[in-house]
DNA sequence: GGCGGCAATTTGGAGCTCCAACTTTGGGGG
DNA sequence: CCCCCAAAGTTGGAGCTCCAAATTGCCGCC
C-alpha cells in the first residue's frame, strides 16, 4: 500500500487486518472516534470515514451510544440444495440440520403482470397472474423473502408441508416441469427489504430470479431475496444419477 | 418516507427515482454538489453524502474533474450454464452468444494447501496441490477471476480449447466426477480484485466456491470471483433428461 | 443492599471550509 | 484554421464543529 494512499484507508487497512487475523475477535469493541484520532494521529473526519467504510464492508456494526463492534462470523446457512431426482429439498431441511427452527408465512393474491413479469412468463402485459409473497424465518428471524408469480390458470395454494412443492402441485395439474432456470446476482436492498430482513447498513442482497419451465412454456417465476453477507446459496449438481 | 428521515436520504431517494423511472437515462449527468445544495436547500455535506451513497449503490459513477453520471444498464452476461448431460458449456460460449470476444489466461504452479483449501479437499495441511490462476476476459475487459486447486496427484494442464474441460481431463485419468457442489455468496472485493477487475468503488463481487467430487472424494476446488453488479450467474437445471 | 437517575461517552446527522488533482471549455496566438 | 494554454468547474480527501439520541456506568439516596 503506497504511503500516498488516503489516511482513512490506512486506518481501515489496519483494523481490517486485526479483524481477519483474529486479534480482534467477533464482539470485540473497536476504538471510538476520539480514540482513533489520537491513536492514528488523524482528524475526526478520517476516523469517522474509516468506521463507515468498515461498517459498509460488513466487518463491524455501530451501536448508537455504545460503540462499534466486530460482527459475528457469518452463519452460513445453505438455503438451496438441488439433487437430481428429488428436485428441491423443502425449505427448512437445511436450516433445521443446522439447529435452527424453520418457519414461513405466505399471502396469495390475484394481480396483473407487470411488463417485467409478463416478459418472464411470456404473457401479455397486465395478464392475470397469482402473486404469492413469502417470508421465511430461521429461529424467528427473517432470512429470505420471495415473491412468486404464476399464470392465473395454474394457480393454487402452496402445499402445507412446504411452500416449495410447486413441481408436485403442477404435476397433479398435468403440467410437467422440465427445467428450472435461475439467474443470481447481487444488488443493494430496497428500503422495504432492509426493513423486513433487518439488514444493517451496507449489506447487499443476493437476488435469485427463478423460472420453472414446462417444455418451452414458463409456468412460474419468482424473485428470491437473501441477505448476502450471512447466507450462502448452495447448489449441488449430480452428474451421473 | 417519513419527513424525519435524514435529509441526505431525501436527495438519494429523489435521484434514485429519476434513474429507475428513466427520466435520468444512462450517461446523463447528475447535478454537481454545488447545484444539489441549491436545488434541495441542503448543506454540502448532505449533497456529498447523497452522491456517495448513490455511487455505492452502483447507480452512478463519479469522474474526478468532470461530474457524476448515471451508469450504463448492467450488461447481463450469463457466465455459468449447466445442462445435465454436457456438464459445463465452455466459458466463452455464452459470452460469444452476446457478441463479445472471450479470451482467458492461466498460470499453474505447485503450492501447499492452506488450512481452508486442505479442509475443502480433505487433505492434510500443507499437502502438495496444484494451483491455477485464471483471468477471463470479455472483449479484453476482465470479467472473472478464478483460482483452482487440485491434489498434486491429479494435476494436469487446462485443456487448450477450454480451461473448464476438467471433467473430461479427470475422466481420462480414470477419475469419474459425480457431483459438483457450489456455494454462492457476495462480499466486498479485496484490493487486488478491485484492481484486476477494474471495479468502481462500492461494487460487491459474487464469490463461487466450487468443488468437484468423485464419489465422496473431493478432486478439485476453486474460487471464482465475478463483479456483482454487471453479471449474473445463470443456472439451468434439467429435471427430466 | 438495591434501585433510580444523572453525567459522561458514543454514534450518526449536518453544517462549513480549504485544497489538490483532474476535466472541460473557450479564447487567443501562431 | 488549428492548436495550446489558462481559467473555471468538479470530485474527493481532510480538517473542525455543533447537536440529538442512545447507552453505560457510577454515585447517591432510600
UniProtKB/TrEMBL annotation, chains A, B:
Organism superkingdom: Bacteria
Keywords, ordered alphabetically: DNA-binding, Transcription, Transcription regulation
UniProt-listed Gene3D superfamilies: Chorismate lyase-like, Winged helix-like DNA-binding domain superfamily/Winged helix DNA-binding domain
Descriptive protein name: GntR family transcriptional regulator
Family matches, as CDD domains: WHTH_GntR
UniProt domain HTH gntR-type: residue ranges: 5-73
Record keyword Cytoplasm present: no
SUPFAM superfamilies for the chain: Chorismate lyase-like, Winged helix' DNA-binding domain
Organism whose genome encodes this protein: Streptosporangium canum
GO molecular function: DNA binding; DNA-binding transcription factor activity
UniProt KW DNA-binding keyword: yes
Any one of the GO BP annotations: negative regulation of DNA-templated transcription
Amino acid at each position: 500500500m503506497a504511503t500516498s494512499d488516503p489516511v482513512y484507508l490506512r486506518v481501515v487497512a489496519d483494523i481490517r487486518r486485526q479483524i481477519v487475523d483474529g486479534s480482534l475477535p467477533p464482539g470485540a469493541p473497536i476504538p471510538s472516534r476520539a480514540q482513533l484520532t489520537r491513536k492514528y494521529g488523524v482528524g475526526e473526519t478520517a476516523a469517522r470515514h474509516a468506521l463507515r467504510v468498515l461498517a459498509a464492508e460488513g466487518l463491524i456494526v455501530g451501536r448508537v451510544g455504545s460503540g462499534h463492534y466486530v460482527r459475528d462470523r457469518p452463519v452460513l446457512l445453505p438455503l438451496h440444495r438441488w439433487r437430481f431426482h428429488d428436485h428441491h429439498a423443502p425449505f427448512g431441511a437445511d436450516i433445521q440440520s443446522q439447529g435452527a427452527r424453520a418457519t414461513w408465512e405466505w399471502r396469495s393474491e390475484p394481480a396483473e403482470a407487470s411488463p417485467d413479469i409478463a416478459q418472464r412468463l411470456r404473457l401479455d402485459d397486465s395478464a392475470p397472474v397469482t402473486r404469492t409473497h413469502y417470508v421465511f424465518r430461521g429461529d424467528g428471524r427473517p432470512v429470505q423473502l420471495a415473491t412468486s408469480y404464476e399464470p392465473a390458470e395454474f394457480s393454487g395454494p402452496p402445499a402445507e408441508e412446504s411452500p416449495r412443492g410447486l413441481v408436485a402441485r403442477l404435476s397433479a395439474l398435468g403440467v410437467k416441469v422440465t427445467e428450472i432456470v435461475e439467474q443470481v446476482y447481487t444488488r443493494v436492498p430496497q428500503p422495504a427489504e432492509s426493513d423486513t430482513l433487518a439488514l444493517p447498513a451496507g449489506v447487499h442482497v443476493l437476488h435469485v430470479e427463478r423460472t420453472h419451465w414446462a417444455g418451452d412454456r414458463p409456468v412460474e417465476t419468482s424473485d428470491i431475496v437473501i441477505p448476502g453477507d450471512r447466507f450462502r446459496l448452495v447448489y449441488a449438481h449430480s452428474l451421473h444419477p
